[in-house]
Write a structure and sequence with these properties.
Blueprint lengths: L1 E2 L20 H15 L6 H8 L3 H13 L5 E4 L2 E4 L9 E2 L1 H17 L5 H14 L2 H16 L4 H16 L3 E6 L5 E14 L4 E8 L5 E5 L3 E6 L12 H5 L12 E7 L4 H6 L7 E4 L5 E7 L6 H6 L4 E5 L1 H18 L6
Parallel strand pairs: 1-4
Antiparallel strand pairs: 2-3, 5-6, 5-9, 6-7, 7-8, 10-12, 10-13, 11-12
Helix pairs in contact: 1-3, 2-3, 4-5, 5-6
Length: 343
């Protein structure tokens, strides 16, 4: 990927900060990836080691890591190695504003991940190095060091990559899926879209499901096993992810049947007014400095943790089911923390 700052100016995606310590291994792996992806004739492991400032054995380990752990395809001619054409995407021309937007999105994804994700590190490395913003490179150095300490879950990584392959290649994926009640089932998913949800710290796969015969969301972290099938499917022309989740507070689908009315006091009103919580949200100022929020969602159940997070600065007016849930939760909390609470 090339980030263009102005007409005719290009930044090398290989410029990396030099002050890594525990993250030095990942820096060199990323550098090796760049070098092996840009060459047309390939490098011997000796030549690669010289370019990276390491011995030949280390260069061999980097190639093995990229091939076996990250799943990069390699082409080998004689003793020369280079990344296979099928692995690489065409160059993407981004200006600094577009690249920064992608960097922020990757930062959000990084906050959602707890495992050792080299693909995320590589993407951040390319953007950070191309932008050449010192604070980004320092952040990248710390990230690489922390990633080294995270557990490697090879089985989980393989499952996620199989689902991504199905999404990119438009191929069905046979999976074992465990729902929220702990029940496991086998089904074939045709992945239409990947939808991140920061509040749940996970990614959902919107897919046509062989069991329900509908397009439904599936949590990626609940897919236990995945096997890519050989056929090809076509995503319907009328599939629209935004329209599909428009009535949801988070991810639940529906036409939007619960009318929710919340009254925030003056303390919370500025924040409530400044944020668009939902496309259907309507605000009404109250005489006491507070604000009333009205919106329509597929199910109020999905809103419950969010409403409880506001504590005593919000009153639920409608629907009755949400009001009763919040009242009961706060009542039990008051008993727990009261003089006779048994915490």
């Amino acid at each position: 990927m090339v980030v263009t700052a102005r007409r005719g100016a290009r930044y090398s995606a290989r410029a990396m900060p030099a002050e890594y310590e525990s993250g030095d291994h990942f820096r060199r792996v990323v550098d090796a990836f760049f070098l092996l992806g840009e060459t047309t004739v390939g490098f011997t492991t000796r030549e690669l080691g010289e370019r990276l400032g390491v011995d030949q054995r280390s260069a061999q380990r980097y190639i093995a890591f990229l091939r076996d752990e990250i799943g990069i395809d390699f082409e080998k001619t004689g003793h020369r190695h280079r990344i296979g054409v099928g692995t690489k995407l065409p160059p993407i021309q981004l200006d600094p504003y577009q690249a920064t937007t992608v960097l922020v999105a990757l930062r959000l994804l990084q906050q959602m991940r707890t495992d050792n994700d080299q693909a995320l590190v590589g993407a951040l490395a390319r953007l950070g190095s191309a932008l050449r913003v010192p604070v980004v490179n320092r952040y990248l150095a710390m990230l690489m060091a922390s990633v080294e300490r995270r557990p490697v879950d090879a089985e989980r990584r393989q499952v996620e990559r199989t689902v991504i392959d199905g999404f990119v290649q438009c191929r069905p994926v046979e999976v074992e899926y465990t729902d929220g009640k702990g029940q496991t089932s086998k089904r074939v998913l045709r992945p239409y879209f990947l939808e991140p949800r920061a509040e749940a710290r996970t990614i959902y796969v919107f897919a046509h499901d062989s069991v329900s015969k509908e397009v439904r969301p599936f949590r990626l972290d609940r897919i236990g096993r995945a096997h890519l099938l050989g056929e090809i499917f076509t995503v319907p022309d009328d599939f629209d992810i935004d329209a599909l989740v428009a009535g949801s507070w988070g991810i639940w689908q529906g036409t939007g049947q619960d009318e929710v009315v919340l009254r925030f006091d003056a303390e919370a009103a500025p924040r409530v007014r400044a944020t668009l919580w939902h496309p259907s949200a309507r605000y009404t100022d109250r005489g006491n400095g507070g604000v009333e929020l009205r919106l329509r969602v597929a199910s109020e159940v999905e809103m419950r943790p969010w409403v409880l997070g506001w504590g005593a600065v919000v009153e639920v007016v409608e629907p009755a089911s949400l009001r009763e849930h919040v009242a009961d939760s706060m009542r039990r909390g008051a008993e727990m923390y009261g003089p006779e609470g048994g915490g």
